[in-house]
Amino acid sequence: MLVAFSVAPSGTGDSVSEAVADAVAVVRDSGLPNTTDAMFTTIEGEWEECMDVVRRACEAVGKHGNRVSLVLKADIRPGYTNELTGKVERMEAAMANRQPGETPRD
Q1: In the chain, N or C terminus with fewer CB closer than 10 Å?
Q2: Is residue 106 part of a domain?
Q3: C-alpha to C-alpha distance for 96 and 52, rounded to whole angstroms
Q4: How far apart are the C-alpha atoms of 1 and 43, rounded to whole Å?
Q5: Residue at 57 is within a domain
Q6: Which residues sit opposite 44 in a β-bridge?
Q7: Could you give the CA distance from residue 96 to residue 71 in angstroms, rounded to a whole number?
Q8: Residue 10: predicted pLDDT
Q9: Which residues sit opposite 32 in a β-bridge?
Q10: DSSP β-bridge partners for residue 3
């Protein structure tokens, strides 16, 4: 499964960089395949291991305030692996097949 999530403390001022860094450290230390961008961190693994990482990331962020906000989206697809990169590779292949300026199909 793929789990994309964003976790941040509430009521801690303007910057949440240190809290988010603590959450990302939990993710990277987990050993699960992962990516982080400006909005979400995405991890790939089995249900139990993904949810454990999300829980621990929330706990790490919770040390920075008394309230935690979590946004989570999951792609639960049993029997599939390497979808963290596979989905992007398939989309890039589809883009490569387009002609310059080609618009989406109706």
Answers
A1: C
A2: no
A3: 37
A4: 8
A5: yes
A6: 2
A7: 32
A8: 86
A9: none
A10: 43, 74
Consecutive 10-residue averages of pLDDT for the chain (106 residues) = 95 83 98 97 97 98 93 96 94 90 72
Q: Is 0.85 surpassed by the pTM of this model? A: yes
Q: Which domain holds residue 90?
A: 2-96
Residue type, 98: R
* CA 12/CA 66 separation, integer angstroms: 9
Cα gap 15→95, rounded to integer Å: 36
Strand partners, 34: 43
Query: What CATH number does residue 74 fall under?
Result: 3.30.70.930
For residue 100, what pLDDT is reported? 82
